Amino acid sequence: MSKIYNPEKLPSDIITFLESIVEIPVVQENYNVYLGGGYLRDVYDSDNIPKDLDIFFIPKPPSRPSVLPLIPRTYVNFDVMAEDIPDIRDNVRRLVGLFNGKLSTRDIQLIEYNKHMSMKELAEDMDININGIMYDIKNKEIYVTDDYVEGHETRTLKFLHEFEESRMFSRMTRMVHKFPEYKINYNKLCEENYQKHISTLNRSIFKDLKEAIKELSGVGKTTPRADGSFIKD
């Protein structure tokens, strides 16, 4: 990996906010905390403005998930247990949405997992290849997966895990919006799921995706092929 992912590139207000979280006693005792996914991707490997902060709370072994702390100077938008969220991944226990109007990125999502994972395992657990990047707040270390690096170098989007079909469709539509120059690779891991789309929805899924893309601002000059790749109109 030739590219250097330097934590010093992260905005100072975000770093200060993250460090204030890991210093909370209940967090120090019970959780490893990471910033991950889309925020880091947009800072290091795209021209997109980061939309929100995804902060992962991973229980330390042998402890079980505890009580997520109140985060000072934030407004709570939602606080939902995983069992109340349709089609959520089975390793997620709780989601909390926060807002902090003084941060450069104001929307925050706390994602509490129900089991211990290393930073490497967490990064590799991301659903789409170009999201596989994590920042260890306490140790000031960044980890990127091989799939992450390859995805951005080759400008290719692919699923790394199977999950509920409509959510896969929604997630990929969002990624195509953000990265219209990237092609989609339906790898073998998702081939069975993908073929099910083809057989049950025929080409309508691609028509729907194309129309969805056209409705998104600044995007739309791509045509989905039946094999899942895209060509320029």
Note down, in words, how this protein is organized.
- The protein has about 230 residues and is an alpha+beta fold.
- The protein has eight helices and eleven strands.
- A hairpin with a 7-residue loop joins strand 4 (about 90-100) and strand 5.
- Helix 6 packs across helix 8.
- It is globular, with a radius of gyration of 18 Å.
Largest sheet: 7 strands, mixed
**Integer count of domains:** 2
Strand content: 15-25%
At the first level of CATH, the class of the largest domain is Alpha Beta
How would you sum up this structure in a few lines?
The protein is an alpha+beta fold and about 230 residues long.
Tags for this entry?
two-stranded parallel ribbon, Beta Polymerase, domain 2, 2 domains, disordered C terminus, seven-stranded mixed sheet, 11 strands, alpha+beta, 233 residues
Task: Tell me the layout of helices and strands.
Layout (H helix, E strand, L loop, with lengths): L11 H11 L2 H6 E6 L1 H8 L6 E8 L15 E7 L10 E8 L7 E7 L5 H6 L8 E4 L4 E4 L1 H9 L1 E2 L7 H14 L4 E2 L6 H11 L2 H12 L6 E3 L5 E3 L1
Parallel strand pairs: 2-5, 8-9
Antiparallel strand pairs: 1-2, 1-6, 3-4, 4-5, 6-7, 10-11
Helix pairs in contact: 6-8
